[in-house]
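Incident log, support desk, overnight shift.

02:14 A customer reports that sequence design results differ from what the structure should imply. Their input is reproduced verbatim below. On-call engineer (initials T.W.) acknowledged and began investigating.
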């Protein structure tokens, strides 16, 4: 029986401790906002329609303003009721959560941009390879018609301008896409930083 009583007593103390912390958070905010506006406790009490002692108790965490007074306080200080009621810990947790979602979404978008860039580069490379054979065949037909010699190697045409520049640009596009994808995977933590 005493074990159960001690456990219950500990839970009640813990709950009371959490309530005091909660009251102190709103009390600290009321005090900070009141002082920020240059108001005394008496002046704020007059505006809200309560006694100076009530303001003092709110600020010291001895009690909490009721809902009507919270609404009046929010209007007086030009802040939302949420900002009065939320604890700093809740606000910072939400900010951290939002920041982690933003980072995660950015990393996913970067990954998408990276693989799309690589895919575009690969498609361009395939088109360029087919165009080499087309250029070679056109050169062969032209050389035959003129009675001149021609080269059989397709890669010779790849080394000639402007094809060599086009291949270099395509290579840069593919490598850039791969680099963006790897960077985004590292940001997501899905890839070790040993690359």
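02:41 Re-run completed on a clean worker. Output:
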């Amino acid at each position: 029986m005493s074990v159960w009583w001690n456990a219950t007593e500990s839970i009640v103390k813990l709950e009371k401790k959490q309530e005091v912390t909660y009251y102190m958070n709103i009390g600290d905010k009321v005090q900070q906002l009141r002082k920020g506006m240059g108001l005394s406790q008496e002046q704020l009490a007059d505006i809200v329609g309560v006694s100076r002692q009530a303001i003092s108790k709110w600020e010291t965490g001895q009690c909490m303003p009721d809902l009507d007074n919270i609404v009046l306080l929010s209007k007086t200080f030009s802040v939302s009721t949420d900002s009065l009621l939320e604890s700093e810990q809740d606000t910072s947790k939400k900010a951290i959560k939002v920041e982690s979602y933003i980072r995660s979404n950015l990393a996913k978008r970067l990954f998408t941009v990276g693989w799309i860039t690589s895919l575009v580069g690969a498609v361009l490379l395939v088109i360029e390879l087919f165009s080499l054979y087309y250029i070679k065949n056109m050169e062969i037909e032209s050389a035959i018609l003129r009675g001149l010699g021609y080269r059989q190697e397709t890669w010779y045409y790849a080394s000639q301008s402007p094809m060599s520049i086009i291949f270099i640009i395509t290579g840069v596009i593919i490598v850039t896409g791969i680099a963006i994808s790897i960077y985004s995977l590292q940001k997501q933590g899905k890839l070790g930083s040993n690359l």
